[in-house]
Amino acid sequence: MNFRRGREREDIEINLIPLIDILIVILIFLFLTTTYSRYAQLQINLPEASAAKAAEGPEILNVAVDAQGRYAINGSPTPFGNPQNFSQRLREAAGARKDPVIAISADAAATHQAVVNIMESARIAGYNHISFTTQTRQ
User: Fold this and answer.
1) Edge to edge, what strands does the sheet with 60-65 contain?
2) Cellular location of this protein (predicted)?
């Protein structure tokens, strides 16, 4: 007895949509959990020179600010006023020095704005080299 005589065999069909959905979820998971290695430092071998060191160091202009917001240029008290006036005072203190290094000595309790004021004044005066002084803990 052949009961399937009149029926044709149906083709097997694979539904790819659920497979694609699962692969997308796996890709998202892999993207989120992958760690990318970054180089914290560059390994550089610097060339050696046999020339003698320069006799003069960079010209330094010391600017200090205390916790009360008082400013001093090279140890001389200087009122701040505004960045344009203070930049003029920096130019006067630099004198004939072409591009001095501005060394900012800020009290630990000085406001952030006081330090930014000095940096803005140095930028207006055209001095691009700025350094901060620190002290070691005892």
Assistant:
1) 76-78, 71-73, 60-65, 101-106, 130-132
2) Cell membrane
